[in-house]
Specification:
The protein has 24 helices and 2 strands. Helix 6 runs antiparallel to helix 7 and helix 6 runs antiparallel to helix 10.
Length: about 475
Amino acid sequence: MKQKPLSLRLAILPIFVLVALLSINVTVYGDDALNGSNQFILLLGASVAAIIGFRQHISYDTMIEKVAENLQSVTGALLILLFVGALAGTWLVSGIIPAMIFYGLQILHPTFFLPACIIICAIISLATGSSWTTSATVGIALIGIGKVLGIPMGMSAGAVISGAYFGDKLSPLSDTTNLAPAMAGGELFTHIRYMTLTTIPSILITLLVFLIIGFTQDISGVAETETLLLAIQQKFTIHIGLFIVPAIVILMIIKKSPPLIALLVGTLLGGSFALLFQQPILLELSGAKTLSVSAAYRTVIDAITVSTQISTSTPLLNDLFSSGGMEGMLGTIWLIICAMVFGGIMDAIGALSAISQALLHWAKTSFQLFSSTVASCLAINLTASDQYLSIVIPGKMFAKAFKDRNLAPENLSRTLEDSGTVTSVLIPWNTCGAYQSGVLGVGVGEYFIYAIFNWLSPIMTLFYAALHIKVKSLRSDS
């Protein structure tokens, strides 16, 4: 039987149901909602979408095939999450993360800590082209330093994410930076140059806000710094040579090694450095009287796969020096899988297409066209739960409309990045939101307001469009 086009009312119904149920869920469970109940709510939302699909005469097999395609698209992301958990475990027992915290406490002044987080993460992300790698390496350490200084974790995470996504957006090594102009029909470096027009003001405002916060924030942990430094030295062998491992990982990413290979190398080197420099830690964790080969092997593998807790003389460090290993990432992986089920069924029933078509039909002026593109990117991020789809689908939908209005393709590619790439991390069930929340150990609700660069970027692109600032035509440089 021929499939009827899906109405906008039916297309957005699963979204309303999902948001309503998630709101109830968060009210009941609080922070624990991410441990499993939100995952089930995503499946309930998918069930509502599936019922609509059956009503539209869409077969069960068709919906399952779309779900399978979605899951296949995030296979790499799921494996990266597992390896990030493994890397965090070995970097803890090897003393790499404690060394980052140790030296960071001495170098980073509390007043300028948050702006420094942005700058450090922006540099690393520019060099690697990956916000995910940035968070998994220096991001984790910066969260720890901020916690020691008494800075709320949401603030630190917001600064880390703002810097990481600034670098990710502008790096020619970034996959999204290459994908956006490809979808819009533009050229990479033209896209990057044009994107700086909105990106630079956004990051400068973000830096200014965090600088003001730094001057006004009451830092309670400063007085304890010396005690904490001593506690770290008593527990770990700390020296600058431990930074060889993260330097190698970052260099591999810069040299365009696949992230999985770089993370695997980082994990294995972390385990090797633990055997070389932190034998007392391995002995303590093993519970054995002497550190035999089997005891050392078991301890390192446990650090990679399951939770590890290192006790110190300071309770604050005890909370900090813990890792869930690969096991600790399973909740996030579960969330992504359920989000892909929801997104896949929404795609199969034609909901994503219906929403984008409605937005395109509404766009009668150039500003409305920009607004529709932004809204479409946000809608895809909310429903398909994937930043790549938030670039690909609106990119395909709006490319001709921009061309028909005599607008250069870099207008579209910039808008896709300003509203698709950076907002993905603000949605808990999106792959990016789930990843950053899981890696940094900070809920999306905690860092949302402080991820200033991320929510400011779509506002900035609409501001430029409304005032017709640097809106380039096909036959003009204005």
